[in-house]
Amino acid sequence: MIFRQLFHADSGTYTYLLGCEQTHKAILIDPVVDNLDQYIELLRQLNLSLVVAVDTHVHADHITALGALREKTGCITMMGEPARASCVTQSFRDGDIINFGKLALKAIYTPGHTDDSYCFLFENYIFTGDTLLIRGSGRTDFQNGSARDQYHSLFHKILTLPDETLVYPAHDYKGWTMSTIAEEKAHNPRLQVADEKAYIELMANLKLANPKHMDVAVPANLACGKKM
User: Tens digit of pLDDT per residue, the chain (228 long)?
Assistant: First the structure.
């Protein structure tokens, strides 16, 4: 597999490029429109054809490149079934397989940060969106978020994966690039709670300010990156 982790500094967003070495087909996870030219140039340099671009959820802190990538490359654009983004080519649901060449991602529905949050599993890699962050977890106080749902997504889905599973989140603000399930179980303060009730209380007491681009990003992302 060809694998690249790309970064958008303004929003702390990671975008992931995965490519099939045999077929030269590729997929992009959580692309940011500001980095569109970088993606196109990297695909050219690596001799890859983009067949799918996906978002883990409707982001609130940056504008997606789904629509722009579809216009530039002809790729399929996808988001999870609960997302209210009618602009995508296709939607997926829990357990669906997303193919790129001879490789594939498995979609895992993990609501909590938002009601349309998904993670993607590829062999021993999990791309966790904003559900599980490195030494943290995504906030649950807007976009139909639910701390209760997130607790179950974390403890009953993601953390049941093998300890050696590599964790790649959609965001990081402290310079971390990746982790493992074992590391997060041991060192993530959000995961050291006694039970569901304690997790809900912890999340309720965060008192975070809204993302600075939220009013623009959410409606734009529901239109696959077109500013409304």
Answer: 999 999 999 999 999 999 999 999 999 999 999 999 999 999 999 999 999 999 999 988 889 999 999 999 999 999 999 888 778 999 999 999 999 999 999 999 999 999 999 999 999 999 999 999 999 999 999 889 999 999 999 999 999 999 999 999 999 989 999 999 999 999 999 999 999 999 999 999 998 877 666 667 778 767 877 654
CB 134 within 8 A of CB 189: no
Spatial distance between the Cα atoms of 33 and 102, rounded to a whole number of angstroms? 27
Residue at 191: amino acid letter:
L
CATH of the domain at 27: 3.60.15.10
Decide: 199 and 188 in contact? Cβ < 8 Å. no
Widest Cα–Cα separation across the chain: 50
Does residue 228 form part of some domain?
Answer: no
pTM score > 0.90 for this model?
Answer: yes
Instruction: Say which amino acid occupies 74.
Output: G
DSSP state of 210: P
DSSP state of 171: B
CA gap 226, 198 in Å, rounded:
39
Domain count, the chain: 1
Task: Tell me the CA distances in angstroms from 47 to 1, 18, 96, 172, 177, one per residue in order.
Answer: 13, 12, 27, 29, 25
Domain with 67, as residue range(s), is 2-209
